[in-house]
Amino acid sequence: MSIRVQKLFEAIFTLEDMREIYRGSVPKGLDKSEERAFDEKIAELKAIISELEGDTGTARITKIADSIPIRSREEDFINIQPIQAAGRLTPEARKALAAYGDGYSTCDACRKPFRLDKITKPGIAEFHADLASYVNMDVARVVPGARRGFQAVAQSLVAKGDSVIVSALAHYTEFLAVEGAGGVVREVPLNEKNLVTPEATAVKIEDVIRETGKTPALVMMDHVDYQNANVHDISAIAKVAHQYDIPILYNGAYTVGIMPVDGKALGVDFVVGSGHKSMASVAPSGVLAVSSEWAEKVLNTTAMTGDLTKRKFGIKEVQMLGCTLMGGTLLSMMASFPAVKERTLHWDDEVRRSNYFIDRLLSITGSWVVSEYPRKHTLTKVDTTGSFDTVAKTHKRRGFFLSDELSERGIIGEFAGATRTWKLNTYGLSEKQVHYLADVFIEIAEKYELPIAE
Q: Which of 447, 374, 389, 376 is nearest to 422 (CA)?
């Protein structure tokens, strides 16, 4: 960790210690001992600021709570980790986390009907409406990750033994959601380009009807799959699903919060997004948006009554287990939302920068792209078996040589030790950072005398 980054963390931690003094005081102000403690912390902070200004000093704090290392990968490195790129918190989200990190801080002004999406201070109710509008659906709820969105829909629509159509590239959480509801996944095969087509989806539905005598209960389909980050024709697949009167869930874990998503234009019934993967939010967080046709079924309220107490909780939504995201998790999503909405307007620039880097990587002879090319997304699976893996075969560090070389130049997030097929994500990197990233790969290739095309 660079000394300046170290001092930034120390300053932040010292300020938190100063906050804690106020938290332990009475509202009338600090007593004499508390004032002394506060003054000592001010002096400590001034010393840190002096070191920060001079780019000097040594590490005063190396662990949080004596055991948790300080995480500085986003400050000290360019991080190309596939699932972390679009989940980096905005400055606003980090500030919200500091202010609202306490467990039930969202409940400060909770009043009847005592439900998360009804809270108006802070503007959680308005945020729910904004989320629905953002993906052009009728109703939205925040959930603890995209997987809980899959789960809510599956448990509402899928009965024991029901078939659910998924992609042959479907994420494991889709499988678990279907299994938890008692259903059975039926996978649509890929074509030669590793894409799910509407034609193949129709064939699979027909196969299921012929084999089981029942129409599938649901189609769950990824717009961008997590394995290759290929873009699948969800709109055409949705039309096929509706021809059989099957509702379709749009898995937008790699799209909602990254690129423009219009649920109604796509013709889908449910839109699921990931807050911590694609909406610059604290984990676990996500969004489930629903069309009005299915809102009552998926967002149904409890009808149960206690047999002894006769208690009723009718306003609580069953699949949401009442309330979902509390404290800093939700507020981080809300704080990042303006920036998230703005950045989706510049998706073309993100893809252009991704293609710039991939083009440079492909100039290293023996490198190629497993994903669609030119790229339509910033997440990419590459194959460097014919380039960097040739070095790994004889290097004493084997495949870890590439990780070493990248780390020395301030790049992390690639699969450590992988020099054959691996994934990376350039989302959120500036023009300068992407150019530097590309130059680093070329520099390493030149160091090991790998041939580079013009």
A: 389
183: annotated binding-site residue? Answer: no
CA distance 203 to 237: 12
Cα separation, 141 vs 119, in Å, equals 13
Sketch the domain layout of the chain as residue ranges.
3-76, 105-343, 347-447
Backbone angles phi, psi at 56, to 5 degrees: -130, 180
Q: Does 347-447 match 105-343 at the fold level? A: no
* Residue 146 assigned ligand-binding role: yes
Instruction: List the Cα angle 239/243/248 in 5-degree steps.
Output: 55
Q: Give yes or no for a contact between 108 and 260, defined as CB atoms under 8 angstroms apart.
A: no
The 10s digit of each residue's pLDDT in 331-342 is: 999 999 999 999
The C-alpha atoms of residue 445 and residue 439 are separated, in whole angstroms, by: 10
- State how far the Cα of 73 lies from the Cα of 433, in Å rounded to an integer: 15
Q: What is the pLDDT of residues 190-249, one digit of tens each?
A: 999 999 999 999 999 999 999 999 999 999 999 999 999 999 999 999 999 999 999 999
The predicted model scores a pTM of 0.95
147 in a labelled binding site: yes
Residues of the chain with confidence (pLDDT) below 70 = none
CB 165 within 8 A of CB 249: no
CA-CA distance, 7 to 17, in Å (whole number)? 15
Does the domain made of 347-447 have the CATH classification 3.90.1150.10?
yes
Is 194 marked as binding a ligand? Answer: no
Contact predicate 135/289, CB 8 Å: yes
What is the side-by-side strand order in the sheet with 368-369? 368-369, 379-383, 421-425
Is 274 one of the annotated binding-site residues?
yes
Residue 112 has a pLDDT of 86
- Residue 340, C-beta contacts closer than 8 angstroms, at least 6 positions apart: 90, 257, 279, 280
CA dist 247 to 63, 126, 160, 239, 290, Å?
49, 27, 17, 10, 11
Contact residues for 334 (Cβ-Cβ < 8 A; gap 6+): 96, 122, 123, 124, 127
Residues 372, 378 contacting (CB under 8 angstroms):
no
Q: The domain 105-343: what is its CATH number?
A: 3.40.640.10
